[in-house]
Design goal:
By secondary structure, the protein is an alpha/beta fold. About 40% of the residues lie in helices and about 10% in strands. Among the domains are: about 70 residues, Ribosomal Protein L15, Chain: K, domain 2, CATH 3.100.10; about 55 residues. It contains 4 helices and 6 strands; from the N terminus they run H-E-E-H-E-E-E-H-E-H. The mean pLDDT is about 85.
């Protein structure tokens, strides 16, 4: 085989599209631009994603709506019907609810809702109670113990705000101290200049006397 016999593999090379070279070329008349219209003309063309003036697709899609509430607390709901499986006089806690299969996990705080009726006097310990659930439990002779984790969350926010305020106060004090030092330096500068001028005058007097 010689160099002039080398050929590229079939399908790897294609003939150049020679538009506008007559109908015999297969790309004549409209030169692959279709028949008339804005995009067949020379010059400017529609912007990207232009859809003829109708509402653009990406504006019609339900995106970027609402927001994520970073301080939202999600509760695991427990209905009053779920509490009837416990014996009368029992103390119901989130750990016991998980043990009996009412809750999958105790990572989230628990909120007791008023769906259904309670027929036993129970001591229910949870993070939150709806007003109706609290009334029904107490009407059945039970006791409600609320351990609200939102207070801990609010306490963290308060402590964070106190730390931020302390940083701001510390920064303002440091700035005031640096400003005071600069003012003292500026006040001392004229005195130093005066002393230097007096020293120069004394040296000049000594030179004249000599």
């Amino acid at each position: 085989m010689q160099a002039h016999q080398l050929r590229p593999p079939l399908g790897s090379k294609h003939a150049r599209k020679r538009s506008g070279r007559g109908n015999a070329s297969g790309h004549g008349t409209y030169s692959g631009k279709g028949s008339k219209g804005q995009k067949a003309r020379a010059g400017s063309k529609p912007r990207r994603f232009f859809e003829g003036g109708q509402t653009r697709l990406f504006k019609a899609l339900p995106s970027r709506r609402g927001f994520t509430n970073f301080s939202r607390i999600e509760y695991s709901p427990v209905n009053l019907d779920d509490l009837n499986r416990f014996e009368a006089g029992a103390e119901v806690t989130p750990e016991l609810l998980k043990e009996r299969g009412v809750l999958r996990s105790v990572r989230k705080p628990v909120k007791v809702l008023a769906s259904g009726e309670i027929t036993k006097a129970l001591t229910v310990r949870a993070n939150r109670f709806s007003l109706a659930a609290k009334e029904k439990i107490e009407a059945a002779g039970g006791t409600v113990i609320e351990t609200d984790e939102r207070k801990d969350h609010e306490g963290k926010r308060e402590r964070r705000a106190v730390r931020r305020a302390a940083k701001v106060v510390k920064g303002s004090k440091a700035k005031a101290a640096s400003g005071k030092q600069e003012a003292e330096a500026e006040a001392e500068a004229p005195e130093a200049k005066t002393e230097a001028a007096e020293a120069d005058t004394e040296e000049a007097d000594v030179g004249d006397s000599e």
